[in-house]
Amino acid sequence: MKILVVDDVGYTCHFHTRLIEKFGYSACSATSGYEALNYLKTDNDISIVVTDLMMRGMDGVDLFQEAQNLERFTDEGELDPPQFVLMTALRMQKNSQDKDVQRLKLAKELGVGKIMFKPLDQDELEQTLKDMAMGAPTAAGKSLDLYTPTQSLKDAVKEIIDSGNAGAAEQFVECLNEEVDSLKKFLSTLETV
């Protein structure tokens, strides 16, 4: 697995590439959306893209949209589009009519995997990449997207904690326990096969 870092500010691009390598991943970098798109067309090992939102020419949202339409193949068949982490210094509290804030909202609507605010929290970035790299093989040999439901689960837990609703927390734990029991039963059936 390889991670592509995209930022039109050279120092930032270099810093994040080295940081990702420090986490133990293979990384490459591009200083524009167009250069990144060329990497994605030629390097099938890239499975995660960490890109800046605001760049000259093709911004991070445009790159995400273009990447969704790329046809990438290996000997085993077609590859899924890479997962995206979008970096930005913007804050949503800014004027909602601001063009850049609108691009950030569009990124959320389009389903960008994760949006992180600069300066990046290194521990959060490392955990995000670990979550995105997590996958389980399916019968067809493709990987199962465990990142999206895991992230939804984390968001739901955070929302319950932030609300201070003990009743909701108890119901959520009960539901989780039932699902964990289902997974345990599933695993025990595999052990008997």
From TrEMBL:
Q: Report the SUPFAM superfamilies cross-referenced here.
A: CheY-like (SSF52172)
PANTHER family in the record, alphabetically? RESPONSE REGULATORY DOMAIN-CONTAINING PROTEIN, STRESS RESPONSE REGULATOR PROTEIN 1
Domain Response regulatory: start-end pairs? 2-133
Question: Which is a GO BP term held by this UniProt record?
Answer: phosphorelay signal transduction system
Any idea which UniProt keywords this protein has? Phosphoprotein
Indicate what this protein is called per its UniProt record: Response regulator PleD
The record, for Pfam families, names:
Response_reg
Q: Which InterPro entries match?
A: Bact_response_regulator, CheY-like_superfamily, Sig_transdc_resp-reg_receiver
